[in-house]
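Re: 2-acetamido-2-deoxy-beta-D-glucopyranose structure - here you go.
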Amino acid sequence: MYANGCQYAHKAIRNKNISNSLMATLYSFVLYSSLLISCFLQKSYGFEGGRKAITEDHFHTIQIKSLLPASICSPSTIATKGSSKRQSTLKVLHRHGPCSQQSQDKPTTTPTLSEVLSHDQSRVEYIQARLVPNSNANKIKDANSNKNKLKDKKANIPAQSGRSLGSGNYIVSVGLGTPTKTLSLIFDTGSDLTWTQCQPCARSCYKQQDPIFSPSSSTSYSNVSCSSSQCSQLSSATGNNPSCSIAACVYGIQYGDQSFSVGFFSKDKLTLTPTDVFPNFLFGCGQNNQGLFGNTAGLIGLGRDPLSIVSQTAQKYGKYFSYCLPSTSSSTGHLTLGKSGVSTTTKFTPFDSSQGKSFYFIDIVSISVGGQLLSINQSVFKTSGTIIDSGTVITRLPPTAYSTMRAVFKQLMQKYPNAPAYSILDTCYDLSNYKNVAISIPKISFTFSGNVKVDLDGSGILVAVSTTQVCLAFAGNGDASDVAIFGNTQQKTLEVVYDVAGGKLGFNPGGCK
Ligand SMILES: *[C@@H]1O[C@H](CO)[C@@H](O)[C@H](O)[C@H]1NC(C)=O
Ligand SMILES: *[C@@H]1O[C@H](CO)[C@@H](O)[C@H](O)[C@H]1NC(C)=O
């Protein structure tokens, strides 16, 4: 069916009279592009070997309470490594946490944990489908059947209203236009185009917290023309060919699970900090927007493509940025552009740049659980490849790697009673008897190529699904060839440094609280 869909979409684009009305263009662009997206696929492999590592101190002591969302914002005031030296830095908030203005609309807009995990699965399936070469038709079919499986599972789970974890999931505030308007955007290393909803919302805008950006009120705004080279760059940045409305360049981008934005490709002044201003920043001015963006104004794309904010600000920041995702939704982290404040003790693993132009590929060499090096054949990670993604919540591992991890973890957690699986999380514990006492959980560390060993924070190992139940915060992929994803739960409190120009990714513990 999807093979036919591809033919249909290409033919439709060729035959389409693109000087239709704006509405028709925007509407049909979504239809065609949703078919076309499955027609642009890519994948390749390439890896290096590495060495083994042994941990010294093998358990974290944590309180289940520390894993539950707090209701009061307590922004990081404690100086963390390099914080006084950071210049171009933005505060990072959990989208649904108490530090975010978005959360004032609670509880109606705060997704439940099961919703978060179900959205996470959609994102993962979408990323994996984009990276698989020929078998996209099967892939999408599988994705749909998985979704149905998830739905069935979800039906058995009591919804927990007001429960927040954040999907997609960390936001920063930036300024756009003249005079400057403040916009809260999701930051995403898994995509490239930055966009915001724009007036007059010709087709549709979802509800957002900030006033919707009005291009006609900005004296520095301009449309990108259809014939410009910038317009044609959209193909690689979004995976969809641009369209035209009269002379204006029209973009379309979708993120899986029916989330998308379509609108005019535009230029305006981007203000990151009072001294960091970019006059002709290229972004999407969305006239038709739908999906899982919560109440944010849109998205900031930190991928590797020439249209990403990383590339567009390269002259000033040298394609270098870092962030730290806070351990709970009640604290704050940072997103810093440029090198300032990055610790000299940062350990770097090379990016595997042989793989596509957008995602950040890295190589997992080994994983330890409770000091035990897991016995996983190297070829397992080579077969899948791995990306690091700020927008995926739960780390996905190749099936055999995950089952090995789970077996060792279970053995070391034997003394805690088991609890039923929860959504995509299959290794859960009933801590009713441990509500107010500390529990001891095995440390987990990842070694990436270049012998870069990263110990996960205690907050990056378990997810609390209630005040008495926790689950291992990892999941296995359905297929050995699906790409592995190092997700944002596992990145918590780590300073993660992207030296894109230098082709390497750095990790540093204790980047934020
Ligand atoms: C941008 O293009 C659209 C569609 O052609 C048009 O309605 C709008 O007025 C243009 N804006 C500017 C500032 O040129
Ligand atoms: C690892 O897997 C590869 C490919 O499946 C196989 O050829 C090799 O013998 C395996 N190595 C070990 C040590 O099991």
